[in-house]
Amino acid sequence: MEPNKRPVRLVSAISALLVGLLFTMFIGSASASAAPAKNSYSPNSLGLEVQSAILIDADTGQVLYQVKQDDVRPPASMTKMMTEYIVLEEIKEKRLKWEDIVTVTKEAASTPADGSQIYLAEGDKHTVKELYIAMAVGSANDATVALANHIGGGTEQGFVQKMNETAKKLGLNTAHFTSATGLLDTTVISAAELAKFARILLQQHPEFLEYSKLQSYKFRERDKNAMVNWNWMLGSNKNVTSFKKFAYEGLDGMKTGYIGAAGYCFTGTAKRGDMRLISVVMGAGSKESRFYETAKLLDYGFNNFEKKTVVAPKSVVKDAETVKIKKGVSKSVPVVTANDMTFLVKKGVEPQISEPKVTLLEEDKLVAPIKQGQVVGSATYSYKDADTGETIEKKVDLIASEEVEKGSWWRLMFRAIGSFFVGLFKGIVDLF
């Protein structure tokens, strides 16, 4: 009987081996589909392992580096920056106050538990400020929806309509919002326009950073633990054991994000000296890598660029040294630039700046009296980046460098008579 059993055992062993191989191949295939393969990222000189990215100067909007920046992708919780912007706008316009009480709706309390939240119950009452900080620090989806309900007439979709109207007004042409939180993958925007929006947010509401830089926040006194900021790159985390390897000098904002369709995302901003940069990475492979890739971008910016002043404040512009005015003690007024003209350029490179394009106010607006410092026109300078080919334009006001009083009736009358005879004499000369 023993000889007859050997073939059966051999076949069973081979079958088991084949099943094991097939299972290993299946698991390997599934793992590969769970995260982008390393070689699926677009080749780039910084070795960024992201689906898209951009780095800009916060002051001018000048693009310093980009990878597939115009691809339209889900931003995940970076969507909340628009919600934060609208809240700040409502406060600015005095339609909302930080101390206003928000009553949590059923919709907000029913926010899916598969994301960040502070476990609000229907009927809970909290101030706008409490909910805003929960959104900014802990990326709390239920707090976000509660604020959206409060501003949007009771529903999240009412607020979403406001989000899209705001995006259109700000010129964010790739942006389409379907939720206030970013939990839906139907919300989309490009990295380029997300950076553009982040710049608008910082320029119009610098107070945003007061909240985005908070390391933690205890929402309720009874809460056992405080919520911890998802932005592990905060410069203030340099002494926090868990995050010090991510902490980046000068970084004080802005927003992380993750859903399956988006991958790991991060919009960051850091300031060193007089330079503030804004970066966006979308579609990174892990929580940690989105910060490592951001550091590559910011390092490139801070290590390779510097601000260069090409026009000093109170400078005289060629061919616009003076401006003619009407009805003044003088017929013209000296003109200078209101402030300096600075561009961000590669270190060690002398920027080639074009001759300025001068635009003066209409004649009927250049009438005495003219005050010192009064704007009388503008000068536009342009600089072409040799690496990107992008032309950056900056405009500076031209102002009167001294005061010109209105001329007396007698002065203006005799000036008119003099002009009449000068014109008459010239007309006679032209006859011969």
From TrEMBL:
Tell me which residues this entry annotates as catalytic: 77 (acyl-ester intermediate), 80 (proton acceptor), 139
| InterPro entries in the record | Beta-lactam/transpept-like, Peniciliin-bd_prot_C_sf, Peptidase_S11, Peptidase_S11_C, Peptidase_S11_C_sf, Peptidase_S11_N
**Signal peptide annotation:** 1-34
Which GO molecular function, any one, fits this protein according to its record? serine-type D-Ala-D-Ala carboxypeptidase activity
Matches recorded under Pfam families: PBP5_C, Peptidase_S11
Keyword ATP-binding belongs to the record: no
Q: Pathway it belongs to?
A: Cell wall biogenesis; peptidoglycan biosynthesis
What's a single GO BP term from this record?
cell wall organization
Please tell me where substrate binds in this chain: 255
Assigned EC number: 3.4.16.4
Please write the reaction equations for the catalytic activity of this protein. Answer: Preferential cleavage: (Ac)2-L-Lys-D-Ala-|-D-Ala. Also transpeptidation of peptidyl-alanyl moieties that are N-acyl substituents of D-alanine
Q: Which residues form the Peptidase S11 D-Ala-D-Ala carboxypeptidase A C-terminal domain?
A: 305-406
* Described function: Removes C-terminal D-alanyl residues from sugar-peptide cell wall precursors.
In the record, the note on similarity to other proteins reads:
Belongs to the peptidase S11 family.
Q: What is this protein called?
A: serine-type D-Ala-D-Ala carboxypeptidase
The record lists the organism as Paenibacillus nasutitermitis
Q: What is the lineage of its organism?
A: Bacteria, Bacillati, Bacillota, Bacilli, Bacillales
Could you tell me the gene encoding this protein? dacA
